[in-house]
Amino acid sequence: MVELIWLVPALPLLGFFLLLLIGHKVGEPGSGWIATIAAGGSFLATLAVFVGLLGRDGHAGDRSYEFILFEWLPAGSLKVEAGFLVDPLSITMALFVTGVGSLIHLYSIGYMHGDPKFSKFFLYLNLFLFSMLMLVFGNNLVVTFLGWEGVGACSYFLISFWHQRESAARAGKKAFVTNRVGDWGFMIATFAIWSALGTVTYTEISNSPAMSAATGTAVSLLLFVAAAGKSAQLPLYVWLPDAMEGPTPVSAMVHAATMVTSGVYLLVRMNSVLTDDALLVIAVVGAATALFAALCAVAQHDIKKVLAYSTVSQLGYMFLAIGSGAYVAAIFHVITHAFFKALLFLGSGSVIHGMHDEQDMRKMGALRAVMPITAGTFIVGWLAIAGVPPFAGFWSKDEILLAAWEQKNIGPLLWFVGLVTALLTAYYMSRQVILVFFGKQNWEEDVHPHESSWTMTTPLCLLAGAAVVGGAINLPLVKDWLVLEHFLEPIFHHPHHFSSGTATKIALAVISVVAGLIGISIAILSWLTRRIPTDRLEPEFLENAMYVDATYARVVGGTGTSAFQKTADFDSSVVDGSVNGLGRLIMKFGQLIQPTQSGYMRNYAIGIAVGALAIIALLAWGLLL
User: What integer pLDDT is reported at residue 397 of this predicted model?
Assistant: First the structure.
């Protein structure tokens, strides 16, 4: 069954080609069902491969299978195969990518109803899923990079799908350009790894001797640059809040199921090369990103922008886990986050759909009565992301906080930043739920909110169920229930084991829950009962994301433009000038000696004679001396 791995990416690719050929003829809803069946079939194929992998002996290292399609790049000592790697990490990623991705496809049939480019949307969505699966299953860095670029291109297509709106077109370009910085890090890291180890294949990299400290740290930081671009860490986060300009299902695909998990996956996959110095940088940047984005989220008014900054913050948690060496905790949070964040984004899309494209939360309120399914499932997602036990987010978030606590030197500081972030998360998500579903009715009289169709509410209910029970795959206080940890551990060179005692674990968990309850309480007192004035709870400084994005725009559009022009001028005058000048010099030298190549035999004979006489004269001169 493991050998069915080729079927997993092949089905969405087949869906893409079918829609490319007949999508415009099939139209709505047929093209949506073709794409959804392709995605669902990919999920079923992934399940089959997963069952086959479970049948192998994990302790004997037998849960790693490479499926080679063909030799792709034979170039001297560089030999790159087009192949897939099936192991616990790739199959874990693929399960939620295809599972959540299939639900987003189904949801999109209802959400995109009536759109003139209905079939094109699903064509892009299938290509997006295929690209992500190539990224996850690639058996080497080059195949992964192929998928890496694929999801980057698809994100551009989908974020700017409604490109008639200037904001959407601008957001797509921002995502594309920002991710090129990360791509640079990926490429240079790949070149350095091949130079140092002579391979780009994951299994060979893992089994190779360690690189020198300097090379290892440089490679690790370059991989982090790549990951920071795709997974929106400081300072490359700026594209992700604007990614909400695309249709809401795109936001769910980008923010939950596919693209933003790429960076986390890359670092976990390359865990064997990450050095301690680089891990410290990753942990610090992750914690800073988590806190920064949580602060920005507290003052947003757009229902999707709150969730967008929330995604950046939760990704910061994942990087904090990686920097703490807790790779299982990072993947655990990737999985639970995929459940509750997809649920929240799709829930927000249901609200927007029911409110006739209104996204300002100040114009909502009391929607739980007219949208009961959307409200109920959204509340489940809220409790999960707020870290309320026993919902899924509580277990994965607390495992990350525990890993941060056990870090050497600055562990308590990182834990405290994570704890404050947890409090802020509970606060801004509670604020959102209150403004949208509770309180007084703030919509206009001519607006008539309504519940969404079954194609939209069914994925919400399924994701809500996953957000409730998802934490059961890795319950940290019960050794026999650490299913995910036992499954993933064989792929790690240095598996992380918590050293804290049970009492410390329980105490830290209680503190975390209390922090979350404080955040919820502040939101209720502020936005529901109005006992705390809200005038100063939405400062303009935070609403504008501390002006980081605006500063980027001013620098790039002002000083940056001038600097770029000077760089281009230097390149044309000095770099190109040197190369072109050398070429002109050689041409002039050639013109000078051109007469010696007349083509007449007598001239060549005279030249040979003169040369022979010169040699004889030199020899005679030497003898005389």
Answer: 96
CA distance 401 to 506: 12
CA distances (Å), origin 224, targets 257, 267, 281, 357:
20, 7, 9, 37
Q: Which DSSP string corresponds to 166-230?
A: HHHHHHHHHHHHHHHHHHHHHHHHHHHHHHHHS--BHHHHHHSPPPPHHHHHHHHHHHHHHHHHH
Give 548-598 pLDDT, tens digit per residue: 988 988 888 777 788 888 888 888 888 888 898 889 899 998 888 887 777
Q: Which amino acid is at 362?
A: R
CA 318/CA 320 separation, integer angstroms: 5
193: left (phi over 0), alpha (psi -120 to 50) or beta: alpha
Strand partners, 67: 84
Q: pLDDT per residue over 283-293, tens digit each?
A: 999 999 999 99
Instruction: Report how far apart, in Å, the C-alpha atoms of 583 and of each of 410, 571, 572, 573, 588 are.
Output: 57, 16, 15, 14, 9
Ranges in the chain, pLDDT < 70: 58-61, 477-480
Measured in degrees and rounded to the nearest 5, phi and psi for residue 193 equal -65, -45
Backbone angles phi, psi at 78, to 5 degrees: -90, 115
Q: How far apart are the C-alpha atoms of 84 and 195, rounded to whole Å? A: 23
DSSP sequence for 318-348? HHHHHHTT-HHHHHHHHHHHHHHHHHHHHHH
Q: Of 415, 427, 401, 400, whose CA–CA distance to 524 is shortest?
A: 427
Number of Cβ within 10 Å of residue 480's Cβ equals 7
> What's the confidence (pLDDT) of residue 1?
86
* CA-based end-to-end distance of the chain: 88
**Dihedral sign from CA coordinates of 500, 506, 510, 516:** positive
- Find where tokens 């990753």 sit: 282
Query: Quick one: tokens of 327?
Result: 């790779």
